[in-house]
Amino acid sequence: MPEHTSNAPSPRRPWRTRGLAAAALGGLLAATACSPGTGPTGEAGDLDGVTLTVAAKWTGAEQKNFEEVLAAFERDTGATVNYEATGEDTGAYLGPKIEAGEPPDIAALPQPGLVREYAEQGALKPLTGEAATALEDNYTDYWRDLGSVDGEPYGVLLKAAHKSIIWYRPDAFDDAGVTPPDTWDELVGTTAATLSDAGITPFAMCGASGWTLTDWFENAYLSEAGPENYDKLAEHEIPWTDDTVVRTLTKLDEVWGDDDMMKGGRKGAVQTDFPSCVSDVYGQKAAAMVFEGDFVGASAAEAGATVGGDAVAFPFPAVGDEAPVVVGGDIAVAMTDDEGVRELMAYLASPEAQTTWAGLGGYLSANSEVPADAYADEFTRGLSETILAAGDDVRYDLSDQVPSRFGATEGRGMWSILQDLLRGTTDPEAAAEALEKAASES
């Protein structure tokens, strides 16, 4: 894991003083450590005795790094912040707690659909004070809208994700004599095939974590069918039995349907979760590639790899005319108005907290005030610039836009149906029919 040190002077405190000035791009490769600032009276320790709870889906290195960010808030304010891991199905975890009147103080929601659902239930507190100011000052309209419902701001995109990259081991590519591909046909027919012929398993899959399979589909579909059809499918304005969907599922089956393409074959692929698949590549070195977002960097570092060195990535290859760019993220929302919640929300929304996390690795921010040199490596810095400069063809994770019971629920909907395709108990045409049925029922 990248070291996170600083010999900089005492930082300004943006969660109290409206933000740092934007740093110029292309700064030094350095990680900067910051303390979160003072409490509401301007003196540290004014939240002594206050206990807060934050719930999120992060585990492993992601959880560890986030807890380090929270620890800075604890040191500065005297508060105690407890972390609760929700598991992959955030809605299933939070639903009973909301019904019981015992929600966490703050939750990181992985789907904008959940923000709307909970806001309409009255389960969220609108952003106010410094958190609302940080959202207005430091985020573009695109990112602000993700956490808003009918124009009312409820959440801040705490952690962005660039989901259109495939990570690989350069040594494996060198051994097989291959280079990163530009197109899907090159990925399957040249890169993966040559690796396999050289006795190197091309992919480690993360099929037990169904959300990773939806990311495969979204990237392939955006490139194959184009942004307009992507939007229509997200709104269910075209059926999931449309030819564009079947073509995309057929493309995926070129990898998913070949045991030699994946560590452990189909059976092993659907039994391996995230981040175990990352360890398969960078720890066990049992495969050459793993597909997932920029956050793979944290798990790769935990496995002993150096991001930008022996852990690098190439853009998801073009299936159609253009390579896709799919983004995701986790939106921090307040679920109570207890003492200390407003202060913690303001801190999490600040460039200071996010600069700290950026220096720890495996993280991207959509906050325009996080300086480029906060990122611990040049590779991640480049990804951050892509996120901030998102163009008209960039699309947000489709499975996070549809109802969560269809797009983001373990054991049903997209997760379950794509797992069936991966394990070989269905085919592309039947999977498309199952997806349409599930979407219509959601």
TrEMBL record:
The keyword Glycoprotein is annotated on this UniProt entry: no
SUPFAM superfamilies according to UniProt: Periplasmic binding protein-like II
Coiled coil: none
Keywords: Transport
Protein family according to the UniProt entry: Belongs to the bacterial solute-binding protein 1 family.
Protein name: Alpha-glucoside transport system substrate-binding protein
Organism: Nocardiopsis mwathae
Organism lineage: Bacteria, Bacillati, Actinomycetota, Actinomycetes, Streptosporangiales
